[in-house]
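Example S7 (structure tokens).
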């Protein structure tokens, strides 16, 4: 069945994600205001984890497919993903 296959595939790559655990908060902005330099530092730390992640491509494909609007996915922030999607689809 297609739905179960999709869910299983999603769950499989997520279980191998390098961002599981206490550093998950690095991947999303805080609920309060974040200064530009704090955001840049947080995102750089998150992206460094992504570049070591064994499922980076699956993660990025998922984010692009569902249009994740926030956070670092597959080593890219929302602005970078939007630019990639715009370049891919014209
Ligand atoms: S690529 Fe980054 S955000 Fe995606 S699962 Fe891996 S560590 Fe997490």
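Recovered sequence:
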């Amino acid at each position: 069945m297609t739905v179960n296959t999709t869910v299983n595939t999603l769950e499989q790559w997520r279980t191998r994600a390098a961002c599981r655990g206490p550093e998950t908060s690095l991947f999303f902005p805080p609920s309060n205001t974040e200064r530009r330099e704090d955001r840049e530092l947080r995102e750089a730390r998150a992206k460094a984890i992504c570049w070591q992640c064994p499922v980076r491509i699956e993660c990025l494909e998922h984010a692009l497919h569902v249009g994740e609007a926030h956070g670092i996915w597959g080593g890219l922030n929302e602005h970078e993903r939007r630019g990639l999607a715009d370049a891919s689809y014209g």
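Notes on this example. The chain has a mean pLDDT of 89.
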